[in-house]
Design a protein that fits this description.
single chain, 748 residues, alpha/beta, TIM Barrel, 2 domains, 9-stranded mixed beta sheet, 8-stranded parallel barrel, 15% strand, disordered N terminus, disordered C terminus
């Protein structure tokens, strides 16, 4: 208890030092009173800590906009003490069922029979034996079974919002919620009180000083029944002037304002509720915001975009948002709102797409690339692969199983095992002709998190058209990104030694033919590829990609990279060390690479909350901030360029130290809490990157074949059945006859 109180005291001391005005405050808002929307922290910072715990409330105030409110769902104990718990059934948010297994009861709650453990059956002293538990099972368990249940008057000082429900339930148990509420207002300042029960608010409204306490009627789900009238909540929206007679505000589920279909598609237009309520003199707060819920695909897994859709859409603004993640709401309102999209975007960090906007459309399709340009990327990327008939194409992986529907086509029968490329069988781009790829298979949006049952937009599942390299370069000329293109070349050695395809020559030929005037970056994990192209007269820049996690980099290795590259791409996991999604430490890789005059990029950035550390509050913007302003990377490679561009456009990114809700995460932030209880370990240090990892023998010369940059004449007779093909043999590029034998074998 002493440590917990110390943490809270320190946090609130820091809050007083950290408060200052934010860029959004100077702008006019379309709220009822023209003021900045209110951030309401539901049970505090409940997306990270157990709802209604002392550190949830403390960190919410520390990382939120000034004046943010702390929300407490009030429950009454057997002896009339008000406590904060998110659920009337304490088994859903505390250890009560473990502490008192024999005291389970069944009660009617608003006419519904509920089995569980209820505060009305326990004194506050008895509840001191129980601790808080996360109320949403998918969240971090590191702080479970640690924090005591808080009485209302122990909620850390801040604008306080009390939400009161189940008035009749407490009356049936000889407890008076009205009397409790009136008594607590004499002990602590209650800034807002809400309830979904009309009768309760009508009863208390005349008895409180409404200049100090705002009365808010809370709408529940549209089909739910308001207990005192027996009417569905949605029907009460037709008489907002009646609600205004006892309340000055309403709080509604966000779907009342922006409906979302069962397919997670946002309605094309909002309802008129906010404007109607404002005309009636009612503020409108919206509930249901969380970074780790299934939000509309339109927001591209970026929770900040959702807040902006409700607060900064040019037509209306809600007056506040009830959220489990107050840091994200504060950053959206205080840093991202009122941005000028026509203003040139800052140059840092440099944003490179991955398959275009590969999180929104199937990677490497025309739609993904056009979306990436629209989203403000600096470089659109083409991972170059080779088809059976020698056409260079853009495909996120050489294995078509990774980004197409080839598994559901007859071409799946052409799958083969090539250990040099993959330990599993694949259907490779060189197994199909360009015509077969164009007409026989479809693009398929990536699904990297299916093990979490999290999928990308099914509406975009198979949309878009594949592009060959020539078409990609033409698209870049017609829809120019801010800076240029990145051409990625992998498996060059395998292709030339086994198929006779000189992919590097084909890329250079295509680039020369295109006469592209923009900046061109050539990327590869193979230093020999970059060295070979570097020998040619060109203005290309080169990026060396480190494709395996490393723990360090030797100075000699950094100097070797600098001999043939200006940029280096490093996996995120090599810059920050985490275990079980808790951020533990950082490495010195970035400064060591920069000491060799290399610009450091990191990859792969994704928006889905399951890809992020717990420390990042399930917010991709926090992760970007940590890499850019914490690790000091120069650029990032991402499937969601819009989020990266929004970050660098934000008012709080314009220079100087930003507010607390716009700070990079410090490694060890969560694990350093005295209340942290999880089994995390520092992963063992791996081998540092050395010169032997970088230096590769020169690429062999290819035999004279048709240029692979344009569709050549067929290099092999029509394919035969896979079962008829002999095993793959070793060959050298020096022996043309051996190459052609292997070519016939692989292409079949």
């Amino acid at each position: 208890m002493g440590k917990r109180r110390w943490v809270c005291d320190v946090l609130f001391a820091l809050v007083l030092l950290a408060r200052f005005s934010t860029p959004g405050n100077a702008q006019k808002w379309l709220t009822l009173d023209g003021k900045q929307p209110l951030v309401i922290a539901k049970g505090g910072n409940s997306g990270v800590f157990p709802d209604s715990s002392s550190d949830a409330y403390g960190t919410a105030q520390f990382y939120s906009l000034p004046g943010s409110a702390s929300w407490c769902d009030v429950r009454l104990t057997k002896d009339g003490v008000g406590i904060c718990l998110p659920d009337i059934n304490m088994a859903n948010c505390t250890t009560i069922s473990i502490d008192y297994p024999a005291r389970q009861k069944k009660y009617l709650v608003n006419g519904v029979s509920v089995d569980g453990w209820f505060s009305v059956d326990f004194t506050f002293k008895e509840l001191s034996n129980s601790t808080l538990w996360r109320s949403i099972g998918s969240r971090s368990q590191a702080f479970d079974n640690v924090y005591p249940i808080l009485p209302v008057n122990d909620v850390p000082p801040a604008p306080l919002w009390l939400n009161i429900e189940h008035d009749k339930f407490y009356s049936d148990h000889k407890l008076n919620m009205t009397q409790y509420f009136l008594s607590i207002t004499k002990v602590v300042a209650v800034d807002h009180v809400s309830s979904p029960e009309l009768s309760f608010l009508q009863r208390v409204a005349p008895l409180v000083n409404t200049s100090k306490t705002e009365i808010v009627f809370r709408f529940l789900d549209a089909a739910d029944t308001e207990p005192s009238t027996g009417r569905a909540y949605h029907s009460l929206l037709t008489n907002l002037t009646f609600i205004r007679t006892f309340a000055s505000a309403i709080i509604v589920p966000k779907g009342y304002i922006w409906p979302v279909s069962s397919a997670l598609e946002l309605a094309p237009t909002s309802t008129s509720l906010v404007r109607d309520a404002h005309r009636a003199g009612l503020k409108v707060y919206a509930s249901g915001f969380a970074n780790d819920f299934d939000n509309a695909y339109n927001y591209s897994f970026d929770p900040s975009k959702e807040y902006l859709g409700f607060t900064d859409n040019g037509q209306f603004s809600i007056d506040g948002a009830l959220t489990d993640f107050p840091l994200t709401a504060s950053a959206a309102i205080g840093c991202l709102a009122h941005g000028n999209s026509s203003r040139p975007s800052p140059r840092k960090p440099v944003v490179v797409s991955y398959g275009g906007s590969g999180g929104m459309f199937p990677s490497c399709t025309d739609l993904a690339y056009k979306k990436a340009v629209e989203d403000g990327t600096d470089f659109i990327d083409c991972p170059v692969q080779v088809t059976k008939d020698g056409v260079l194409i853009c495909m996120i992986d050489i294995d078509l199983l990774k980004s197409t529907n080839v598994a559901s086509t007859t071409f799946f029968g052409r799958s083969i095992l090539i250990p040099e490329i993959n330990a599993a069988q694949g259907v490779y781009t060189f197994n199909l002709t360009w015509a077969e790829i164009q007409t026989g298979i479809k693009p398929q949006i990536s699904a990297p998190f299916t093990n979490y049952n999290l999928f990308r937009n099914p509406v975009a599942q198979n949309v878009g058209a594949f592009l060959n390299l020539t078409q990609f370069l033409a698209l870049a000329k017609e829809n120019p990104p801010r800076s240029g293109v990145l051409i990625s070349i992998e498996h060059a050695r395998f292709l030339v030694e086994n198929l006779g395809f000189d992919v590097t020559a084909g890329v250079v030929n295509a680039l020369n033919t295109s006469n592209l005037k923009q900046e061109i970056i050539i990327q590869s994990t193979d230093s020999s590829v970059l060295l070979k192209i570097q020998e040619l007269p060109s203005s290309y820049k080169f990026m060396y990609k480190i494709d395996k996690p490393i723990s360090d980099v030797l100075p000699s290795a950094a100097k070797d990279i600098a001999k043939f590259a200006s940029y280096v791409a490093v996996p995120k996991s090599s810059i920050y060390i985490a275990d079980k999604f808790y951020l533990l430490n950082s490495t010195s890789i970035v400064p060591k690479l920069k000491a060799a005059n290399l610009s450091v990029f990191s990859y792969l950035f994704q928006n889905e909350f399951v890809s992020l550390w717990w420390d990042a509050s399930s917010d991709p913007m926090v992760e970007i901030n940590t890499f850019v302003n914490g690790a000091l990377i120069d650029g990032l490679i991402t499937e969601f360029p819009a989020t990266a561009d929004a970050f660098r456009r934000a008012a709080c990114s314009s220079g100087g130290k930003g507010p607390m809700y716009w700070q990079p995460v410090s490694p060890g932030m969560l694990v350093s809490f005295p209340t942290f209880y999880a089994n995390v370990t520092q992963p063992p240090a791996g081998r540092p990157l050395s010169s032997s990892d970088i230096v590769q023998p020169p690429l062999p010369s290819a035999p004279p074949v048709a240029s692979p940059s344009m569709p050549p004449a067929p290099l092999a007779p029509p394919p035969v059945a896979l079962s008829a093909a002999p095993p793959l043999m070793a060959a050298t590029a020096a022996a043309l006859g051996s190459v052609m034998v292997l070519l016939l074998q692989l292409l079949s």
